[in-house]
Write a structure and sequence with these properties.
The complex is a heterodimer.
Chain A lengths: L1 H16 L1 H21 L6 H32 L1 H6 L5 H29 L8 H25 L3 H17 L12 H7 L3 H14 L7 H20 L18 H35 L34 H7 L21 H5 L11 H5 L15 H7 L24 H13 L11 H12 L10 H19 L1
Chain B lengths: L3 E10 L2 E11 L4 E5 L6 H8 L7 E6 L2 E2 L4 H7 E4 L11 H10 L7 H7 L15 H12 L6 E5 L7 H16 L3 E6 L2 H7 L2 E6 L2 E6 L1 H8 L3 E7 L14 E7 L2 E6 L2 H15 L3 E8 L2 H11 L4
Parallel strand pairs in B: 3-8, 3-9, 6-7, 7-8
Antiparallel strand pairs in B: 1-2, 1-4, 4-5, 9-10, 11-13, 11-14, 12-13
Helix pairs in contact in B: 3-4
The chains are: A mainly alpha, B alpha/beta.
């Protein structure tokens, strides 16, 4: 124990004497913080909504670049070879390296949170849970860093290997790019990466319900961390002359890979279970007459409606021109159907059903929520009482949005030339859009919000501006109501 | 009882047998040298003994402990200085000594080691600011951090300036005086001759001779080497009448030969020089040295 503590003390001391390590470990994450802040400056609580990503990037960088770089450079220099002359065990050295890196990561995370708080971020909603989750995330990525350190023969190899893991994890692993913006195949693939679970779990503690809804994420991180740590410890090399390709025991890397595969497979399996559990009660409710008031989101073909019924008014599908499709970056023709008031809950499309639960804003335990006793339904929003609202609109029971945010453009933001035409078209069409003119003001607002929430426009460059336009229309309605 | 027993050690790197049947013993309290040219297998042999490499076969016993079965127990009793002195750039000698002392059950006082190895001035300076000599002293201090019974030194004076080399030689002699056993590897014949009680000459992974340096020299040959330099050139034909010489070389104004009858050979040589009116610049007659033995033995080995 005395040896481990001394080794830990020296590791930390040397880390804080290394200027490059400080830059990469502490300054680099702050640069990300500032970048996110600038990127999403129009959101009022921007940082709280992105701390999951920011903290994950810090841990990923520290564990997948910092840790293996330090380990491989010391091994290359022969420092570990010298250690090996002493009666120190591999487990002791690995333990001290892991603990030292964890302490470095947690100080970097604390610094990042402190700077975010100074920039106006609200205090994390579950600080203790956040610490627990941060520990799980660190464990998962440190395990990965250990494997990288054992696979790389020299520091340049660490950088190459790190980029191979870092960039995909950022782009399609659910860290830097919101999962909702990714195609289905990438969303499925992201379930095999630890980054997505890290982001979700951290975000749930910063601005979400805390540990209660992220048990699977913690399990995923634990499995991946355990797999990586076991593989890293088993492949441990004291000597740079023991080249990876020529050394026995490299099959242990499969333990790390299997842990990723296991987590991804579990997530896929769990996603299918959740989808079927979610659909069953919905289908049951859809068969019941006059049930519910919530809108349903569908994609083509558009729902058949009765145009004469003002409350149920369905607009003609809005079809984008070729130029607009180009602007939206979509080859398919999106069409919009208004909310169908005959259903009770957001109905998922066939595509959405394939999507993992977390990305489709589905509750962690959908069956628990959907199986709650059915409340008496009302014919109109005007019949809803305060008691109904207090009973049904419980914030904590709302499904998690998994950090998915739909920003609304600030007033001062002008569209760029590429998207101006597309936006102008929407602006011109919106006032004459029938569902936006229905007499029932609540239904009208719902229809407007639906336009802003159309999933097929999620990657449209003008979506924030479009939402602003919808918001303006909604506000007019609210002013008239009040 | 020997401090080190190595029997039939074999170590292979791919197709190369770096150690093939190496056997030797190191007695308690002696300085034992493994002498050999570069790539002869001496470092591989040493690293197998101290546990850095796993041999394919062979028995290794250190301080009465089976080193292959109980490497950790052996490490508690030995100290070692490797060829390359590897520490982190920013670690200080005091921190390094404190860290390594924590690895052992029995540890010497760090302050005492700093004083003994004259590291006081640089005790709190980063490793990358130390000179080669200071680094070497730190490496030796680290080897003494567990107050070992046995010290292994792998080419300890390579790269050192003459003063640092002399200081380290004095330290090695002091180790013996303090009762430590020392096993060192070197390709420096003078160093081996000067420091070692016994040596083993190793070449191509095999021990080709072993024993005290004097015995090796005596056993190699009783012939003396003669060298003559003159002011003007000497013709080879003039030397044909000198009795009892062999390996004659004649290079303009320098001649060398070996003889087992130096008195008669030198008398005949001087007479020729006198008769031809050649001025003598330099004349040496000396017995064989360890270098001669080493070169003779290693040149006899067939290439691998």
């Amino acid at each position: 124990m005395r040896a481990a503590l001394q080794q830990l003390r020296i590791s930390l001391t040397l880390h804080y004497r290394n200027k490059m390590a400080l830059i990469y470990g502490y300054l680099f994450p702050l640069v990300f913080l500032l970048a996110f802040y600038v990127l999403y400056r129009h959101e009022r609580v921007v940082l709280a909504r992105h701390m999951g990503e920011l903290l994950t990037v810090s841990v990923l960088g520290g564990a997948c670049f910092g840790l293996p770089t330090t380990m491989v450079s010391e091994r290359e220099r022969g420092v570990w070879r010298r250690y090996r002359l002493a009666p120190i065990s591999t487990a002791l050295l690995v333990l001290s390296v892991v603990v030292a890196r964890y302490l470095i990561l947690i100080t970097a995370g604390l610094l990042q949170i402190a700077v975010a708080l100074a920039m106006g971020m609200p205090w994390p909603q579950h600080p203790f849970d956040l610490w627990i989750v941060f520990t799980f995330v660190s464990f998962a990525f440190i395990g990965l860093g250990l494997v990288m350190a054992m696979m790389a023969d020299n520091v340049p190899a660490v950088q190459a290997l790190g980029q191979c893991i870092f960039l995909p994890m950022l782009i399609i692993g659910g860290i830097a790019v919101p999962l909702a913006s990714l195609p289905d195949w990438a969303q499925h693939l992201s379930q095999f990466f630890p980054g997505r679970y890290a982001v979700q779990a951290l975000q749930a503690c910063v601005a979400g319900p805390g540990l209660g809804t992220i048990r699977f994420d913690l399990l995923a991180l634990l499995i991946i961390g355990t797999g990586g740590t076991i593989a890293g410890a088993k492949m441990f090399r004291w000597d740079s002359q023991q080249r990876f390709a020529r050394r026995s025991g490299n099959a242990w890397v499969s333990v790390a890979l299997i842990s990723w595969l296991l987590v991804g497979t579990l997530a896929e399996y769990r996603g299918r279970l959740a989808a079927s559990a979610r659909l069953a009660p919905e289908q049951a409710r859809q068969t019941a007459p006059g049930s519910g008031t919530a809108p349903a989101v569908t994609t083509p073909p558009s729902t058949e409606t009765n145009a004469t019924d003002d409350r149920h008014a369905t607009p003609k599908s809005i079809t984008l021109s070729d130029a607009e499709k180009k602007a939206a970056g979509r080859s398919t023709q999106p069409s919009i159907s208004p909310p169908n008031s005959s259903s009770t809950a957001p109905k998922q499309t066939a595509r959405a059903e394939k999507t993992p639960p977390a990305t489709t804003a589905v509750p962690e335990k959908p069956s628990a929520k959907t199986d709650t006793p059915a409340h008496p339904t009302v014919a109109s929003w005007q019949a809803v009482t305060l008691a109904d609202i207090e009973r049904d609109l419980v914030f904590d029971r709302l499904p998690s949005d998994s950090g998915i945010v739909t920003p609304i453009a600030p007033d001062e933001e002008d569209p760029d030339p590429d998207t101006a035409d597309h936006l102008r078209y929407i602006q011109e069409m919106l006032p004459s859009w029938q569902p936006g003119k229905v007499s029932d003001p609540v239904q009208r607002v719902r229809n407007m919000l639906y336009v802003a929430a159309v999933r097929t426009w999620s990657s449209c460059p003008s979506n924030a501006l479009l939402r602003r336009q919808c918001s303006i229309s909604c506000n007019r309605t609210f002013r008239r109501i009040s | 009882m020997p401090k080190v027993i190595v029997q039939d050690l074999q170590k292979r790197y791919d197709d190369v047998l770096a150690a093939q049947g190496v056997s030797f013993e190191v007695e308690d309290g002696e300085i034992f040298g493994l002498l050999g040219p570069n790539g002869s297998g001496k470092t591989t042999t040493l690293e197998c003994v101290i546990g850095l490499r796993q041999p394919e076969t062979g028995r290794i016993e250190v301080c009465g402990i089976d080193a292959r079965q109980h490497p950790k127990a052996v490490k508690e009793k030995v100290g070692a200085v490797l060829q390359t002195i590897a520490l982190q750039d920013k670690i200080t000698p005091r921190e390094a000594l404190t860290l390594f002392a924590s690895f052992y059950k029995r540890a010497a006082a760090v302050s005492g080691l700093i004083e003994r190895f004259a590291l006081g001035e640089k005790a709190d300076a980063p490793f990358d600011s130390l000179s080669a000599g200071q680094r070497q002293r730190l490496a030796v201090a680290l080897a003494f951090v567990n107050d070992p019974e046995l010290i292994f030194l792998d080419e300890p004076t390579t790269g050192l300036d003459p003063q640092s080399r002399r200081d380290l030689h004095a330290e090695i002699v002091k180790m013996k005086r303090d009762g430590h056993t020392v096993l060192l590897t070197t390709h420096n014949i003078d160093e081996a001759e000067q420091l070692c009680d016994r040596i083993a000459i190793i070449d191509s992974g095999r021990i080709i001779a072993s024993g005290p340096p004097r015995d090796l020299i005596a056993a190699s040959s009783s012939a003396q080497n003669v060298l003559l330099r003159t002011a003007t050139a000497i013709e080879r034909d003039w030397l044909a009448q000198i009795p009892g010489i062999e390996d004659l070389t004649c290079d303009n104004a320098t001649i060398t030969f070996r003889t087992t009858t130096p008195g008669a050979a030198l008398a005949a040589l001087m007479q020729i020089v006198h008769e031809r009116g050649v001025e003598v610049v330099e004349l040496h007659a000396r017995k064989a040295r360890l270098e001669d033995v080493f070169l003779a033995l290693t040149s006899e080995q067939p290439p691998q």
